[in-house]
Amino acid sequence: MSDPSSTLPPAQPRPALRGLSHLPLALLGLVIGVVIIIGFAATQRAERLSAPDYAGTPLDEPAAGFRLIDQHGATVSLADWRGRVVVLTFFDSQCQETCPMTALELRAASQALGEDVQSVVFAGVNVNAEANQVADVAAATEQWRLDEIPSWHFLTGSPEELQPVWQAYDVAVMPVNEGDGELVHTPGVYLIDPAGYKRWYISVPMGEAAFIPLRDLLVQHIQTLLSE
After folding, report:
1. Lowest-confidence range among 14-18, 168-172, 186-190, 202-206?
2. Domain residue ranges of the chain, discontinuous segments joined by +
3. What architecture is the 57-227 domain classified under in CATH?
4. Please, what's the b/e burial string for 16-31 (b: 16 or more CB within 10 A of its CB; e: otherwise)?
5. Rounded distance, CA 169 to CA 142, Å?
6. Of 38-47, 82-91, 94-103, which has the strongest mean pLDDT?
7. 7, 170 in Cβ contact below 8 A?
8. pLDDT of 88-111, one tens digit each?
9. Cα 227 from chain centroid?
10. pTM score, two decimals?
């Protein structure tokens, strides 16, 4: 998986793509996408390794609205949560590796917030357009124990509804191997303040002791946003 920031991934140098002009258009697009994801991940990792006090990327821009269905079959929108801090991430409903680890961090952050959790919404947007039914996100919610978070919403919809949300939050979604259902997508968590502004983007490499755990960064920034 790779890491986005508040801006789109930087364009890759042209020489990296010159040998690809003979490929079919669809395959060429796939290759270009993977090159962008990998290149951007390398850039972000280098930046983090040069800054061991990494606390996330500060933002200050309106969060794009959306209207999707959650794991209970209820239709919800970002605007419904105005007045609360929103912890927004993007999950593959079929993921077996990084997404469950991120879910663990979200659960730990929710527990650490104490009474403040009542002023926070935790939400994930599904990036798997093939496993996009309510049953899919409900099963992932149960498997990853995200139902332990009182305000958890795992959002899904049709590909036509999901893709604009991915694009609005600079989330790239690509198949690893065409046809096998395995995906690579940008990870990380956005924090949206009670006024509906994106204030932080946080992506911490899992299991690397040199960095502050995601759960701790979330709690720190959420408490600051609630106190403003």
Report:
1. 14-18
2. 57-227
3. 3-Layer(aba) Sandwich (3.40)
4. eeeeeeeeeeeeeeee
5. 26
6. 82-91
7. yes
8. 999 999 998 899 999 999 999 999
9. 25
10. 0.77
Our CA angle for 62, 66, 70, nearest 5°, is 135
Amino acid at 115: E
In which residue are the tokens 């929103």 written? 86
Q: Which two tokens stand for residue 35?
A: 């090159």
